[in-house]
Amino acid sequence: MARPGRLLFAAAALLFALRCCFVPGPSAAPKAQSEFNPAVAASAALPALTMLAEDAEAKYGDQRKFAAVLVPLTTLVFPAVAMGMFVLYSFQDDAFWRVVPGTKRAQEMEDAWREHPLFANSQDPFDGLVNPDDYEKGLEEAWERAKPAGSTVTVKDKLQQLSKQNNPHWESWRKLSA
User: Fold this and answer.
1) φ and ψ at 40, to 5 degrees?
2) Does the pTM exceed 0.85?
3) Model confidence over 69-117: pLDDT tens digits?
């Protein structure tokens, strides 16, 4: 059973806490200071100054001036210049060098990345393995258990074939990483 004293104590604490949530009466309020603040006066005068400004509206004739310039500019000049620049750009040898892998510029960029020691082996399929020989041995054992009867495919031949297809410089990188 709950004791009535605890309930009465909780109600008194709640009322005391609620007392802090209300604004004090006029007799307890602090006296206002009567200093002149120029920033407050300027901010109060700004709405009155906006009545002096002219309304933002287009007058008759303004629309024709803008249309005479903007319509030909946006429908004829800008598209013609953009298309002409694209045509000139697309006829260069290395225009889309980021998406066409065999271009001269793409090869230069790839060679520049390969010169950096952190990216020299980034295309090597075994890059990052702690022990590539252990990986190949485990792969060979797994293939021997899973290969179909009569199959002559070996793991080493298949790995070299796949690596050469994906990366023509695989052998040179393999020698560098060894």
Assistant:
1) -70, -40
2) no
3) 888 888 999 999 999 999 998 888 888 888 887 888 888 988 888 888 8
Residue-level pLDDT at 171? 56
Q: What distance in Å separates the CA atoms of residue 34 and residue 52, rounded to the nearest whole number?
A: 31
Write the CB contacts of 132 (distance below 8 Å, at least 6 apart in sequence): 126
140 CB burial (10 A radius; 0-12, 13-18, 19+): middle
Higher pLDDT, 83 or 144: 83
Tokens of 21: 């949530």
3-class SS letters over 42-65 = HHHHHHHHHHHCCCCCCCCCHHHH
Any idea where the domains of the chain sit in the sequence? 71-115, 125-177
Instruction: Give tens-digit pLDDT for 15-54.
Output: 888 877 777 777 776 777 777 888 888 777 777 777 776 7
- State both tokens at 10: 């909780």
